[in-house]
């Protein structure tokens, strides 16, 4: 992607949001199946969208919390390739978690658990800060110049 003048492209923004959201839920589902699926008889969408499953009172709840936080770390890695700009990471991470909040409200009602809010705000912070860090490292890399071009100058 060219980093010059930004052109307003709503289709690109929407496609990036959809792509990031799909990758996040795919990763969260895989982590849930690995960490929580081995502990419960049947893994359902309840574990992704219901606030009552995120509880520190049970080992299954801790596995669900770990899944959400590890998915945030993976989401930061996805931002490196999907978003590519450090200054956009907070916007896209916040959008992802706001969409997750709306889906959770539709699925299980308003999240009344303090744990749900702490886990999701922590995930937002992890995804935004780690995504910005990774993107800044990529943006600050030196551009390699070929030795043939250097010889002709």
Automatic annotation (TrEMBL):
Pfam families: SYS1
Annotated localization: Golgi apparatus membrane
Transmembrane segments: 12-39, 59-83, 90-110, 116-136
UniProt keywords, alphabetically: Golgi apparatus, Membrane, Protein transport, Transmembrane, Transmembrane helix, Transport
Name of this protein: Protein SYS1 homolog
Keyword Transmembrane helix: yes
GO biological process: Golgi to endosome transport; Golgi to plasma membrane protein transport; protein localization to Golgi apparatus
Family classification: Belongs to the SYS1 family.
Entry GO CC: cytosol; Golgi membrane; trans-Golgi network
Cross-referenced InterPro entries: Integral_membrane_SYS1-rel (IPR019185)
This protein's record includes keyword Manganese: no
Topology relative to the membrane: Multi-pass membrane protein
